[in-house]
Amino acid sequence: MSPRDLGLPNLRQFFDPNSPWVLVNEGSLMGFFNFVPRYLRVGPWTKFAPICLSIIVAKLIYWMPQQSSFHLEDEILSTHPQYSEFWLYNVIIFLWMMLILVVTIRKRGPGVVLAYTIQSWTMLTIRHGLSALAPFLPSKHFLLWANELLRFPALATASVTFFYW
Asked: What is the pTM (predicted TM-score) of this model?
């Protein structure tokens, strides 16, 4: 099945500043973003946006930590005590985000996960799920390492989504 069969634009359209840059009709996923003015949801992009995004990607690649720095120390792990209010926050947010993700995929199809915003949402969902699971895992478990590894990409994609979209 090709991307065109899924109703997705071709790759060239993603880099064309004059074409619409949203994959959902009118830029409002299931009506959740109708409160945002249409010109902010649909575009077109300014010529400055692709330049900014390219600079951000280049900086992230340049500042990417070396593999030798991926180690876990008990002091830096983002775990909270079992059944604390922080643990409960992670559980509730994970369940809510999973519900939104499942509903979105069912309504729009699996091709929606190709959108940058949905990838960012998925990373945040996984991170909340791993943070909720963390107090029950032994130290040095690979899921704790994965949780820490997702910390920066989740923050970066959420920040880009918030500030540039």
From this structure: 0.57
